[in-house]
Amino acid sequence: MILSTTEKAEQFEDLHRSGCFVMANAWNPGSARLLESGGFAALGTTSAGLAWMLGQKDGATSRDLVLANASDIATAVNIPVSGDLLNGFGADPETVAETIRLAGESGLAGGSIEDTTGDPERPLFDRELAKDRIVAAVEAARSLDHPFVLCARADGLIGGDCDMDEILTRLRLYEQAGADLLYAPALMKLVQVKSVVESVQTPINVLSGIGNEGNVADLAALGVRRVSVGSQLYSAVAGCLKSAAHELHQCGTFGWAEAGVPFGDLNQLMR
Questions:
Q1: What is the model's pLDDT at position 248?
Q2: Which residues pair with 45 in a beta bridge?
Q3: Which residues lie below 8 Å from residue 72, measured CB to CB, with a gap of 6+?
């Protein structure tokens, strides 16, 4: 049975009500279908994966391109998809709200908004503006004709040289703003994850696969609701490609091909 956008969105909302689930991140429809076949209940997009696929740096892609890619991914699979919407593609709350409205109209069941500015001299939005941006995003999400899980990101550990106190302060502000999910990338230690879970009532997402402590079971035991992997699956594929290219070029052998997914299996997924 092919699910409607509303049915996917309702499923995605339900996933965030209890327990812990893994949301793998796809960069195009083909990778999304391969991940769907692996049994994941939901997928996220990855801004970095998309940019690298296009030969660009992360953050260089336009809103139109990001949303078109996310819409293609959402259409390609029969499970919910959440969009990596970077910082909402603008500083002012109105632009962020418009990004959320467009994301919802693109068939997405959710999306994340960062508090990063893109300016190395002032990498994070001031707290109050950052909160206002999430307020606007939440209001836009609630105006859609289907559920939309709004994830608010405090990116200071990777993009703003923040300590945990500042991260927790910002997450509490985003919780007050009405975000459905909170997310602070680069929580490298389980004790950091624990401090976030204990400091807020809103469910949290944890980015894993970047050298941080623990596994999914450890994170679930701490009360984490969602685990994502960002651009790490793309990085893993790039690592396989680099290794295969090295063997092919340096050795002239084909051992790398043995680990590939058979042609017929891949072709069958691309309906």
A1: 98
A2: 26
A3: 28, 29
